[in-house]
Amino acid sequence: MEKNILVTGGAGYIGSHTVLQLLLGGYATAVVDNLDNSSPVAIRRVKELAGDHGRFLTFHQIDLRDKPALERLFSRTKFDAVIHFAGLKAVGESVEKPLLYYNNNLFGTITLLEVMAAHGCKNLVFSSSATVYGWPKVVPCTEEFPLSAVNPYGRTKLCIEDICRDVQHADPEWRIILLRYFNPVGTHPSGHIGEDPCGIPNNLMPYIQQVAVGRLPHLQVYGTDYNTKDGTGVRDYIHVVDLADGHISALQKLDDPKIGCEVYNLGTGKGTTVLEMVAAFEKASGKKIPLVMAGRRPGDAEIVYASTEKAERELKWKAKYGIEEMCRDQWSWASKNPYGYGSPPDTSQS
After folding, report:
1. Would the pTM count as exceeding 0.85?
2. Within a 13 Å sphere around the CA of 306, how many CA atoms are in the beta-carbon half?
């Protein structure tokens, strides 16, 4: 095996896709996840999709705040690097329950970094977010933009970025890459793993998907008077498989002794409106998505998309897939798994 990688939050949406790409790339992969907002079924399916490589996957149900459990894992296995996804990620919930988010996301990360340092594993790829740009005044967002988070979820990401920078500054043996994602959508082309949010989805694509399979009656479109081609907000949607590949490129970059603590945007560098995304999904699925137009949501930015030049130049990575593939693969997952990894409510499983 090439290397031993620990993936925190590896049963989640982006985590599971990255774990699959790691296994297929020849990495031995251990997943740590507390399964708060994810399913063990995802891990089982990743193992199946990985074929022969699946035997190099191990799973540990651990909460990152459980230091003794993490210590035991690190004492048993020597890890070459950690990819850190684990964290709560619903913006609305973070506004209602800020302490939950600070406790989980910050304490979990601090404990992880302490255990990594104690066991001499000082290579980290951290899952950050474009939310650290707040409401950008201009686009595209470059990595040098001023940082300002506008909700507790975003502030935990920004705070963890600062912690990483401070840790690396204090101990130059650390090599850390911070990846700022834009809007991950789509699923593995097999349709066997995908996004399975608990409760009402927070993001556009899972919401459209639940309307398409009949779980929700319509899609509410917030803001129709933005200064964009059709009045709806513009975001940079990136296929989750492209995003997963970005992590492999970041892992390889950690071999560079000059890396220090470096940040990269992962997006496509192109903006897509809400209505363009709906139209692409309707085309891919053959389903009509009923829309209800509503006013702007407070705190929503008008146009956000990435500058991806730095990742292309330094990570030798570039997104390959467009919104047609994103919608095609999302529909493949939705049509095969209308209730995600679970079963329909109130029906006995055969």
Report:
1. yes
2. 28
Cα gap 24→244, rounded to integer Å: 12
Question: H or E element: which one contains 226?
Answer: none
DSSP 157-203: HHHHHHHHHHHHHH-TT-EEEEEEE-EEE---TTSSS----SSS-SS
Tell me the pLDDT tens digit for each residue of 263-316. 999 999 999 999 999 999 999 999 999 999 999 987 788 999 999 999 999 999
d(CA 28, CA 61) in angstroms, rounded, equals 18
Distance (Å) of CA 149 to CA 160, 220, 323? 12, 25, 27
What number is the average pLDDT over the span 225-243?
97
| Helix pair 13-24, 240-253: axis angle to 10 deg | 60
| Token digits of residue 153 | 């979820």
Distance CA 143, CA 154 (A): 16
Q: Known catalytic residues? A: 153
pLDDT in tens, 312-334: 999 999 999 999 999 999 999 99
- What is the dihedral sign for C-alpha 246, 170, 80, 253? positive
Kindly report the CA angle at 248 between 242 and 252, in degrees rounded to 5?
Answer: 140
Burial 99-133 (b: 16+ CB within 10 A, else e): eebbebbbebbbbbbebbeebebbbbbbbbbbbbb
| Contacts with 140 (C-beta within 8 Å, 6 or more apart), sequence order | 269, 305, 306, 307
